[in-house]
Write a structure and sequence with these properties.
The complex is a heterodimer.
Chain A lengths: L3 E8 L6 H8 L5 E6 L10 E13 L4 E7 L7 H7 L5 E7 L6 H15 L3 E6 L4 H10 L5 E7 L4 H31 L19
Parallel strand pairs in A: 1-4, 1-5, 5-6, 6-7
Antiparallel strand pairs in A: 2-3, 3-4
Chain B lengths: L3 E8 L4 E4 L7 H17 L11 E5 L2 E8 L3 E7 L5 H20 L1
Classes of the chains: A alpha/beta, B alpha+beta.
């Protein structure tokens, strides 16, 4: 029986590694809308997502199930992100460490998304092995409420699974925070007015 | 053709290739056509399909008909509900070789 179902949005710029992440971790066949690229984009890669990717990941005999929705990366498909972002529990933002030219617009997108959704975010810095370097790139995106920054090599399935574990850890921490908030308000309803009772902000990576 | 109001030709990855002069020039249209076709290719697996032939968006003001044209293109036509769909489809099929030939040359 599934006790918890979480919706995860995987987004980020074109050719960051979003589809690779979902394909490497999904335990069910990935619903993919990859098509051949054309024009300048065909010089970067051969195929691109035009609508969505969808995969799933479950643990503890399906007690916790992740529904993973990946967006296209190009701005012309932004309407798909607007469709897919509804009711998400966490955002996984993928950036390619080596594609520095994509970082400024990625930062604008990430900040806009988090201001809109108000859910935790995990930044997966693809093609990067160094935690300090990954955090430096994440800081450059300008988002101050990122829960975790993960250097990864999404061409490697094990690396993708590490990203999912970080997503799960972030979600479970958030659940515990919510439950402890509920307990506090049960114990003392006046506690809600106390500054100490405010829910802790996500850890700032800076 | 009676009942056909306009057409847009897009690449499967969402770039506008051509459109009839009466169509609004909106880059998002080509991207939406590509996304819809991409999803439709997945949706047809629900019915066990292997080849997407047509996608129909039936709305209160008429029809939007989408056809994959070869491997690389999508053609959309805005039409009135009264349009002869089979005739329109036959017309488009007769022009497919021309469109795909133009794309690949």
């Amino acid at each position: 029986m599934t006790d918890h179902v979480f919706k995860i949005l995987v987004t980020g710029p074109f050719a960051a590694g979003k589809t690779s992440l979902i394909q490497s971790v999904s335990q069910t066949p990935v619903v993919s809308t990859d098509v051949v690229t054309s024009g300048d984009e065909s010089e970067v890669k051969d195929a691109t997502t035009v609508a969505m990717d969808f995969g799933t990941y479950a643990i503890e005999d399906d007690a916790i199930r992740l529904l993973i929705f990946g967006t296209p990366g190009q701005p012309r498909f932004r309407f798909m992100t607007n469709i897919l972002k509804g009711d998400v529990d966490i955002v996984t933002f993928v950036v390619n460490a080596e594609a520095r030219e994509t970082h400024p617009s990625a930062g604008v997108e990430l900040r806009s998304l988090l201001a809109d959704l108000r859910v935790p975010a995990v930044v997966a810095v693809n093609r990067c092995d160094d935690q300090d370097e990954a955090e430096k790139i994440a800081r450059s995106l300008g988002a101050t409420d990122v829960a975790r920054v993960i250097p990864c090599q999404l061409i490697d399935e094990d690396s993708g699974r590490e990203v999912v574990i970080e997503i799960l850890t972030t979600l479970l921490e958030r659940m515990e925070d919510d439950e402890s908030d509920d307990d506090e308000s049960d114990d003392d309803e006046t506690a809600a007015a106390d500054d100490d009772a405010e829910r802790p902000l996500e850890a700032v990576t800076a | 053709m009676t009942g056909a109001a306009g057409a847009v030709l897009a690449s499967v990855d969402g770039f506008a290739i051509a459109s009839s002069s009466n169509m609004e020039d909106d880059a998002a249209h080509a991207a939406m056509l590509a996304a819809a076709t991409g999803l439709a290719r997945q949706l047809m697996t629900i019915g066990g399909g292997n080849e997407l032939r047509q996608l129909v968006v039936d709305h209160d003001e008429g029809l939007l008909l989408l056809w994959p044209i070869g491997e690389y293109l999508v053609l959309a036509m805005v039409a009135e509900r009264t349009v002869d769909q089979s005739r329109l489809r036959a017309f488009v099929r007769s022009r497919v070789a021309l469109l795909t030939g133009a794309r690949r040359s």
